[in-house]
Amino acid sequence: MKRTVQCLVCALWTVVLVLACSASAGRPAGFTGLLVSPGPYPAAGQALAGRALYVLSGEAVEALDLSARPPRRLWRVTGAQAGPEPEIRAAPGLVLILGEGRTIALDARTGARRWQLETRLLHTVRRLGLAESPEGGIAGVDLASGRTLWVYPDSGAIQLDPSGTPVWPVRLLTVRDTPAPDGPCRVTPAYELVDPESGTVAARHPVSTGTCGFAAMYTPLELPGALTVIRRQHGTWLERLDPSTLRPLWTANQPSAANAARVATCGAMFCLTRSDREGRERLVVLDGGTGAERWSGSWRTTLVTAGGALFRPPGRAGGAMLLDRAGQPRRDLGGWLPLAALPGGRLVVQDQGEGGWAGLLDPGTGSIRPLARLGVPVGGCQATAAHLSCFDDQDRLHVWALGRTAG
Question: Which long-range contacts (CB under 8 A, 24 or more apart) does 237-242 make?
Fold first, then answer.
């Protein structure tokens, strides 16, 4: 840690030019190297926001102005200790350091500490933060002041759009028991989509299984673009709900869904990990529209979703594979791997072979256009329409400007 702080204090950003694809070669430049950190950033994180880049390493946070040539440091602060494995995130006017049980908000212009919460923000949307309340419900936090605006007493799953951002107005999917003294069951569970600020129920649908049940048998899942519930009743079922009426669109018997962490959205499909009789994990892919099983694979890793495209990482079967919306192979990408998604749907990819060439992938056609030799393999990337920032295998930070070829 001491070495990291010393490295940050003494860091002098150096400019490197990576112009493998230049105008003189008959093609407009797609990548222009802006900077490489002279030393490593162990256990670092980053957040790109507009023309600024915020970097977290240890307890130190610094902001860089990427519009300057060369980029210049705007500010640097220390003491941003938010607990183990912190995450850095940009919000309107703020830089958020998110740790286990703590959130620290810094002013994006100056680095001054604005406020601190003894809880971790789960999501941010517009100027609102969403966090778990001490009582186990959901709390709405004013990002400008850190003040708690409201608390909803029940837990549930925040409804997310396909990008993983909470919908607006905020909606919370819950399952609630309703007394039914005149029926065969003491209570009847129902799905509810509520406005947690006001407590207003936006949609409600009773759960009909033909047998008695309780809300505790249902676990709402927080998945991008899908309202989904695990139902543990006469087996384990995965149920997808209509976002307007909460009527089940399909119900699939999926023992592998017993653990919510083993369910994910993969583009327009659902990916589940399942163990066979020998204990080996298999990947099962369900159709997002019907819940029917599309196919399963024997590799021990899940699929990768980037910019709406679906990839199978390299394995014993060969190189990375671009898949179509049905999960079927579209193109063998060989050594090309996705780095980051750009606005408009295209992806920055890098050839993991010698030279570390970067290019643009069109997920619709599967075509790759090489643009520039990055020189080193990189990962942990973020991208905007104007910049790409990544870490190399020595934990050094690289930043490139993206020209009109990449836009």
Answer: 238/263, 238/270, 238/272, 238/286, 238/291, 240/288, 240/291, 241/173, 241/191, 241/205
